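Task 17 of the worksheet. Students: predict the tertiary structure of the chain below and write it out as structure tokens. Keep your answer in the requested format; marks are given for formatting as well as content.
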Amino acid sequence: MLDLNGKLKLHEQCAVTTVRVGAEQQAVIVVDNFLSGPELLIDYAAESAFDSVSDAFYPGCRAPIPEIYCFAIRAFLGHVIGEVFGLAAGNVTGELSHFSLVTTPPQKLKPVQRMPHYDTTNPKQLAVLHYLCEPKHGGTSFYRHRHTRFEFVNVARAPTYASAVAAELAALGATPAKYICGDDTRFERTCSFPAAFNRVLIYQSINLHSADIGAAFGFESNPRAGRLTANSFFFYR
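Model answer:
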């Protein structure tokens, strides 16, 4: 495997902006031109063994990323995270990072994979999504649940949200076997961020979100040709 130590450097044209999405004005940090030479990560992914994902949410396969990648995120973007989310770099209690490829065809999606999701009810967990693919593979959108009007789900909201979703499933059945990619009868899209090679999105994991997987998506399992992303979670105290 490639040795990434000392090779992950900040791009000299790195640009950072913060966008407030939806009525609840949740912050999303957008970083363009994040790393210099991000192709190294693609090369590493191409040499990795991807395993099918068994969790309820991710519709594809994953492979681990070396710890140096999370270290680079904290080193290069820790100050921005602190300014936007009020989470100091010294308060990180854990981190998790992996390469991801969307490979599950629509007909094999579980009902929960056909709607937007949140990763946790803890507002001190951040998601860091790094696109290592072409724009054609689809970006990421954020959503509002029409009935509850929730755009994020924290501990206080979780029981209400779960009850509302369960009631909709009981009354209306599961949504059609396809990826949500815009408004439907139960959710409305509040903002969409197109994929761009070497772009990073950072947001609180409590936000309702989903990948934009359109009807023409190819479900390619080759890291050099598919929707390769680096997905990381940072946990703060």
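Marker's comment: The radius of gyration is 17 Å. The mean pLDDT is 96.
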